Amino acid sequence: MSEYQVVHSKSPVFYDVYERKSDLQHQTHYCPGCGHGVAHKLIAEAIQDLGVQERTIFISPVGCSVFAYYYFDVGNVQAAHGRTPAVATGVKRARPDSIVLAYQGDGDLAAIGTAEIVHAANRGEKITCFFINNAIYGMTGGQMAPTTLVGQISTTSPWGRRPSNEGYPLHVCELLATLEAPVYIERVALSDNKNIMRARRAVRKAIENQVAGLGFSLVEILSPCPTIWKLDPVEARKWVADEMIKAFPLGVYRDRKTAVPVTPVPQHPVAEVLDLEAEVTAKPATSHHRHVRETTIKIAGFGGQGVLLLGQLLVEMGMLEGLEVSWLPSYGPEMRSGSAHCHVCLSRQRIGSPLVSHPQALIAMNKVSLHKFAPEVQAGGLILYNHDALPANFEPPPEVRAVCVPASDLADHIGSAKVANVVMLGALLSETECLPAETALAVLERRVRNPAMLELNRRALQAGRRYDEREIHVALSQPDGFAE
Amino acid sequence: MRQLCKGNVAVIKGAIQAGCSAYYGYPITPASEIAEAAALYLPQVGGTFVQAESEVASINMVYGAASAGVRVMSASSGPGLSLMQEGLSYLAGSELPCVIVDVVRGGPGLGNIAPEQSDYFAMVKGGGHGNYRNLVVAPASVQEMADLTILAFALADKYRNPAIVLTDGFIGQMIEPLELEERQISMPDKPWAVTGVRETRKNLVNSIYLETDELEAHVRHLEEKYRRAQEEEPCYELYLADDAEVLLVGYGIVSRVLRSAVEQVRKFGLRAGLFRPITLWPFPSKALTEAAARCRSVLVVELSTGQMVEDVRLALDGRVPVEFYGRSGGNVPQAEEIRDRLLARAADLVAVG
Ligand SMILES: Cc1ncc(C[n+]2csc(CCOP(=O)(O)OP(=O)(O)O)c2C)c(N)n1
Ligand code: SF4
């Protein structure tokens, strides 16, 4: 039984005196014959043999091993119940040179933390996991674990585990072996000296893999819990050998020698990534200040008609002209129904609510939007409707002017349905003079890199303006220098 | 430089400027652009982005990264924040700094994705178990999404405690100009962190204290930090409050609506002013009491059925009458709605109490 003296024979990876314990500082808090003590010893030995004590960070779970940090003289982090693999992920990614050991019981790993272990394994986190399977909840006093055997009695399976009520024991190694990323998965048992030697090799290999940077390794350790099982230490080991190994076959479930290849991301200076040198300045692009007007605009239509983009063009123009601007989209499920709208505020003052419930101008890119939003338009306001005539059953609200601009048709004629929104922009600028057309051109030039597409946008802007000027107004009172 | 930016994206731009090097999160409307921006930007500047399997995993990855001493964050909306509450309690108990953004949507349950301020209780009053506090800041613009995220990182490190950026769907989704300048990142030393080197080998990150007296001492220690924060950190903004008869109180998106409402009712001769808490915890109680001292009444407006109003009432302690006006379900009142209400109630609001 020499292997059960382990924690007394002090590896240098264990503290000499367990000062973090309140009393009995020369012995562990584990029951005599408990598998946790043996597992700790095997892990300490491996850490020592591999010379990684300084680099090791041990993540302890919630369960009987919650106090592993009493013993291991390494960096220690204690995790919430079941979350050890997630915590280990955060630690390892922050400190890739550290050796991160995640340690869990069967309730911790295979019940409350099922998602975390599966996904840490699936991401191939370069950590080492030790899974102590004792088929029971030790710390809380003997409730059923996901690995409790069929027929095994626990305080919450008083008639024995009944598959009809509790399902079958969960096979973690088999489950994780269905994943691609893990490099090493083995199940061992603390049942007898021969199996403990195999466990020793497995523990060591699992840490070695991390030292080599290979990837995710997990060792499941079938482990005695004499206290809850109500057996003496010898009987408990025999129960592991006779009952547990039958239900949980020992062996190597995955053993791969190569790491998942790294796909790098191009690196850039912070200033470049954050656009700190963006050339957008508050300097007005034009001196035609009489053409800048505070306006609230709502733009609505089908997704794909460039409704949201049109709003963004307007706020960018406003910003260039030194106005305060805001843009607020419709978002979420509404977008999936195929319709989209956004709110634009252009103001000389700090903007209150970005939500425009009563716009001064509505751009309705389709009939549904026209009907839906026209009633919101302010008295004295304007509706621009994407068609050559208003629908027969449509009546604009009192004191609201409705103007038809067949933007989609004009855009088709120009050569791309995509620029219908820019046709509308042209019409809006000409109708409301809220912003100068040169600024629209400047923004389009910044945004549209493809020369052919830019030319289409230019012509769309012009078409919108001209359509508006010629078809709606006989003459425009204030030419603003826009060159045809 | 001034650039157009979405509120949610500004969070990440601020975070990177604050030296944040890790983001762990799970998508949820209306917060997803924060994760998307983190996924795009962080890896380009040498940082880490991982889409976690859940918010439970996210917050525990944050816990791990914070234990290892790096600046780390996550973001979500109501349902995700509910899942993070256990983790937040562990972070506070273990004295780990992190920044978590809550882009609040309509609740309870799945609710909807429109803006609300109904997570005030959950974020400001705790939500998780045990004696702890979150530091909470409430941005009201895209600019502040960046600026207050930077502040949140500083506060989190200063107090070794989670800091929450409590915002809403509108501020997260809107685009406004954002002014960003290159800044020197000043990272505090974290000698307590567990970094996998000899110098930190004796360190332990932990929130378990088995002995009753030990745990009480720990709780007292946390309490002392929170008392210091209450003294040093309250932050607020006043607008036309000097001569106000009626003081409007609102944070985040609502404060913008109230600002317009103040201007509008002043045209009708009603002297209204605005008090806008910028830190929700610590709540700027003292400043509010001072600002309200000269007023006849206080009107609190929230996108909730009345949460922050409790802190306003606690601060004013009956000295000034407090009325409440709330909208919910994602409805955001317009300035005119507040104006009309104020004007309709003007006689009562300014009546000598
Ligand atoms: C969220 C949460 N739920 C429940 C608990 C209570 N709890 C503590 S340990 C434990 C089970 C531990 O069993 P296991 O993981 O098998 O470890 P063992 O004690 O057997 O080593 C439970 C349910 C907790 N701490 N946290
Ligand atoms: S209850 Fe079981 S698992 Fe816990 S210490 Fe005792 S023997 Fe070990």
Q: Can you describe what's shown?
A:
The complex is a heterodimer of chains A (484) and B (353). Chain A has 484 residues and is α/β, with parallel strands linked by helices. Chain A has 17 helices and 13 strands. Chain A is elongated and about 100 Å long. Chain B has two domains: 2-232, Rossmann fold; 237-351, 3-Layer(aba) Sandwich (Rossmann fold). Chain B contains twelve helices and 16 strands. In chain B, helix 1 (7-17) packs across helix 2, helix 9 (253-267) packs across helix 12 and helix 10 crosses helix 11 (308-316). Chain B is globular, with a radius of gyration of 21 Å. The model of chain B has no long low-confidence stretch (mean pLDDT 96). The complex binds thiamine diphosphate and iron/sulfur cluster (SF4).
Short description:
With 484 residues, chain A is of the alpha/beta class. Chain A folds into 2 domains: 35-255, Thiamin diphosphate (ThDP)-binding fold, Pyr/PP domains (Rossmann fold); 269-476, 3-Layer(aba) Sandwich (Pyruvate-ferredoxin Oxidoreductase, domain 3). Helices cover 36% and strands 15% of the residues of chain A.
